[in-house]
Design goal:
By secondary structure, the chain is an alpha+beta fold. It contains five helices and 14 strands. It starts with a helix and ends in a 10-residue tail after the last helix.
Amino acid sequence: MRVRSLLTLVLAFGAACAAARAQSPLRVAGLPEGAPLSVTASATERVLLVDLALAPEWHAYARDVGNGLPVRVALAADGDFAATGALVAPCDARGQLGGAVRLSLPIAPVGAGRALRATFDLQVCDALQCLAPMTLTISGEVEPVSVLLVVAETGERAERIAAWLRGRGFDVALDTYAEVTPAACDARDVVLTDSDLSQKHGVATDVVRRFPRTASPVVAVGHLGTKLVEAHGLAMTSGYI
């Protein structure tokens, strides 16, 4: 239970750190030619992001203020994701969205696949006119957060942790402290380094000290994790909750 609770904690943190790299780009279709804005979209398994870039003096609406129609994002019923909360649309005091703005909709998987399909309704206006309401389509595949699990040795313990992670939607690859490479670390969204009790891990300190430097977030667990963090010149405190 303690291992399970700790993994839940550290992977939630690791996934948050990796969210920017883990976002899957999505296709946006239906924007009329010459419209005074551009729209892009991306998603993780937990949030759908829609980025608007409106031309100067043009705006959309985050809520119904009696002028233009407010923005709306709806997930398709035949997709593998559903909304779990309300659309967040940061706006000014007048309820307007202008310039560069990011809309976010919390989502969660509901199917066995990775397909995300949604519609995005909006209307844009300037001081003189409002264009006709638009309905854009958003579609694509949402990739899971990828984890490199680095262990002292492969075996039952490593496979048990990997299975637990895969059961919660992570894409997991296994490696060992002795064999892990910089390329393997850089290819993943999160690197999770694990160890059993200090007297059982069987990995020499110099092996841990040679652990690759990587741009991916590293979540270090256990005795070897502590040694790894120290070897990289970082200060750390840790404990169980």
